[in-house]
Design brief:
about 525 residues; alpha/beta; eight-stranded mixed beta sheet; six-stranded mixed beta sheet; about 20% strand; elongated; membrane
Length: about 525
C-alpha cells in the first residue's frame, strides 16, 4: 500500500473543493451565546430611578390609605388621626357637622387630618352626671392627643414601609429591589418628618382658616391675640374646641323624635340681609351642611336699592341652590331687574307661581319703596291690597288644579291677607323670628334678619343677631314637618343657637289636625357659646 505524505493530505483539505471546505459550506449557523445576550441594551439609569420612585410613592400612599390612621379617644369624643400626602402640608381638624379648621402648621409633603367622629355615650353621660369633671377635661384631652400623635407616627412608619415594600415585590419580583423600595420610603418619610419639624409654625393658631358653620364662630378656638406661640397651647386650644363641641352634641341628643329622611325637601328661609357680605358665606355654609334644596329670600336684600349696589348680588349664582326672591321695601325695581338676569334666581311678583325643587311657590313684592325708612301715608292699606291680590292669585291657582304650597311676601301685614288660601306663608321685615297659626289655619313664619340688620346692628346698645331657618317639607304631602331656627350672635358676639320646632300634629302621639294650635308646638334648643367678645 502506498502511503500518502501528511503534507499532501493537509494540502488536499485546504483546497476549495476539499472536505474541510465542503464541511464549512454545510455548517449550520451557531446560535448566539450568552455573551451576545449580555451585550443587549439595558434601561437607562434615570428611567430605573424614576420607576423606583413612582413605586415607592404609590406604595407609601396606598399603605397610608389602608392602615395609616389611628382611632384615638379624645376626652368624651372618638377621633381619627391620619397622615395624608399633601403639596402644602398643614393640619386639618374636621368637626362634623360644624365644619373644619385649617392650620398652616408646617410645610412638608404630609398633612395631619384629625376627624372628630362621634360622642361616646358612656363618657359623655359621665360628664353630664359629674359636671365638675369639665375642669380637668382639657388636661385629659391634651394627654390623649399627645398619645394619639405618637401612635400615629409609629403606625405611619409601618404603613409606608410595608406598602412600598409590597408594591416593589409585586412590580420587580426581586426581594432586594423590594427592600430597596421600603428603605427609600422610610428615608422619604423621615425627610418629610424632619422638614415638618424644621418648618413647624406654632403661630399658625393665630391665623386659623375656618369652613362650614365654624366660619360663623371663629372664636371657638379662642382669642387669637392672647394665644402664646407654643405647641402645647395649640393642643389646649384644640382641647377647648373639642370641649365646646361635646356640649353641643350632648344638647342635641335630646332633640325631638323627628328626623328628616333623605327625601325631605329642605328650604332655607333668609330675609333682610341689608348688604351684609358675611351673609353669603353663612348661607353657602348652611346650604352645604343641611343639603338645602331651595333658598327663599323674603326681601330687603339691599339697603338703598341703587344700581351701584347691584354687584353685591352676584354671589347668589354660586350659593349651590335655586334662589327664590321677593322685593322688600329697601329693594327697588332696578334691584329686581338685575336679579331677574342672574342664573338660578326665581323672582316672584304679582302672585306669579313657580314649582321649584318639588314645591310650588307664589309671591308678591313690597308695594312700598322706602330706603330712607320713612313711612308714607296709606302704607298699611297698600300692604293689605298687595296681600289681597296675592290671595286672589292663590285661589286662582287652586281652581286651576295647581295649588300653591308656600306663599312669600315681605311685610307680615301683607302676608296675613292670604290666611286660608295656602298652608304656609313666609315673611320678614320685622327683624325677629316669629311663628303663628292664623284664624283660618295658615301658618305665618316671619324670619329675622339674616344680615344682622346690616349697619343698623351698631345703632342700639346690643347688636341684632343673624337669624335664618331650615324648613323641612314632606315630599309627598308638601306640608311643613318641622323647622330649625338658627341664631348667631350679632356683631362682635360669639354665640350660636339652633332650636327645633315641631307643629302640634307632628309631635309623637299627636293626632293630625288641619288647624294646629300655635301654643302647642314642640321645640328644643341647643347652643354653642364661646364666652366673651373678640
Amino acid at each position: 500500500m502506498v502511503r500518502v505524505p501528511s503534507a499532501v493530505r493537509n494540502l488536499r483539505h485546504r483546497l476549495p473543493g476539499g472536505p474541510r471546505a465542503r464541511s464549512r459550506r454545510h455548517r449550520r449557523p451557531v446560535p448566539p451565546t450568552t455573551t451576545t445576550t449580555a451585550l443587549a441594551p439595558r434601561p437607562r439609569p434615570w428611567k430605573r430611578a424614576l420607576g423606583l420612585i413612582a413605586v415607592v410613592l404609590l406604595g407609601a400612599w396606598l399603605g397610608l390609605l389602608v392602615v395609616g390612621n389611628v382611632r384615638v379617644p379624645v376626652g368624651p369624643m372618638d377621633t381619627t388621626m391620619t397622615l395624608r400626602p399633601s403639596l402644602t402640608g398643614g393640619t386639618k381638624i374636621n368637626v362634623s357637622p360644624l365644619g373644619a379648621l385649617d392650620l398652616d402648621s408646617h410645610h412638608a409633603p404630609v398633612r395631619l387630618d384629625v376627624n372628630v367622629d362621634q360622642l361616646d355615650p358612656a363618657r359623655s353621660q359621665a360628664l353630664v352626671d359629674h359636671p365638675e369633671r369639665f375642669s380637668g377635661l382639657q388636661d385629659e384631652v391634651t394627654q390623649d392627643i399627645a398619645r394619639g400623635t405618637a401612635d400615629l407616627a409609629v403606625r405611619s412608619v409601618v404603613a409606608v414601609v410595608t406598602g412600598a415594600t409590597a408594591l416593589g415585590l409585586i412590580v420587580y419580583r426581586r426581594p432586594r429591589r423590594a427592600l430597596a423600595a421600603g428603605g427609600l420610603a422610610l428615608t422619604l418619610l423621615a425627610a418629610s418628618g424632619g422638614t415638618a419639624y424644621a418648618t413647624w409654625n406654632p403661630d399658625s393658631v393665630l391665623e386659623p382658616k375656618f369652613s362650614g358653620l365654624l366660619s360663623s364662630a371663629p372664636s371657638l378656638v379662642g382669642n387669637a391675640r392672647s394665644i402664646v406661640t407654643e405647641f402645647d397651647v395649640y393642643q389646649k386650644e384644640l382641647a377647648r374646641l373639642v370641649t365646646n363641641v361635646t356640649k353641643l352634641y350632648d344638647a342635641t341628643s335630646t332633640l325631638p323624635a323627628y328626623q328628616p329622611d333623605p327625601t325631605t325637601i329642605r328650604v332655607l328661609h333668609v330675609s333682610d340681609i341689608h348688604l351684609n357680605p358675611a351673609s353669603w358665606a353663612i348661607i353657602a355654609s348652611l346650604v352645604e351642611q343641611y343639603r338645602v334644596d331651595v333658598i327663599v329670600d323674603s326681601g330687603d336684600t339691599m339697603d338703598h336699592g341703587t344700581a351701584a349696589e347691584n354687584g353685591f348680588l352676584d354671589p347668589v349664582e354660586d350659593l349651590g341652590a335655586p334662589y327664590v326672591w321677593v322685593r322688600g321695601n329697601h329693594d327697588s325695581l332696578v334691584t329686581q331687574r338685575y336679579l331677574e338676569g342672574l342664573k338660578n334666581v326665581h323672582v316672584l311678583d304679582d302672585g306669579r307661581a313657580e314649582t321649584i325643587a318639588g314645591l310650588r311657590f307664589a309671591g308678591t313684592g313690597d308695594p312700598q319703596f322706602t330706603p330712607d325708612r320713612s313711612r308714607k301715608p296709606g302704607a298699611e292699606q297698600s300692604q293689605e291690597l298687595a296681600g289681597a291680590r296675592l290671595a286672589s292669585a292663590l285661589r286662582d291657582q287652586k281652581a286651576a288644579g295647581t295649588p300653591v304650597d308656600v306663599a312669600v311676601a315681605h311685610e307680615p301685614s301683607a302676608a296675613r291677607e292670604v290666611d286660608g288660601t295656602v298652608p304656609l306663608v313666609l315673611a320678614g321685615h320685622i327683624h325677629r323670628q316669629k311663628t303663628e297659626v292664623m284664624q283660618y289655619g295658615t301658618r305665618l313664619r316671619t324670619e329675622g334678619s339674616t344680615g344682622g340688620s346690616g349697619l343698623r346692628a351698631i345703632e342700639g346698645e346690643h347688636p341684632d343677631p343673624i337669624e335664618t331657618s331650615i324648613l323641612y317639607f314632606d315630599r309627598d304631602t308638601r306640608r311643613l314637618q318641622a323647622w330649625d331656627a338658627i341664631k348667631l350672635g350679632g356683631l362682635g358676639l360669639t354665640t350660636a343657637e339652633v332650636s327645633r320646632h315641631l307643629p302640634e300634629e307632628n309631635q309623637p302621639g299627636a293626632t293630625p289636625s288641619p288647624t294646629p294650635s300655635p301654643s302647642a308646638e314642640g321645640q328644643h334648643l341647643f347652643g354653642l357659646v364661646a364666652p366673651g367678645r373678640p
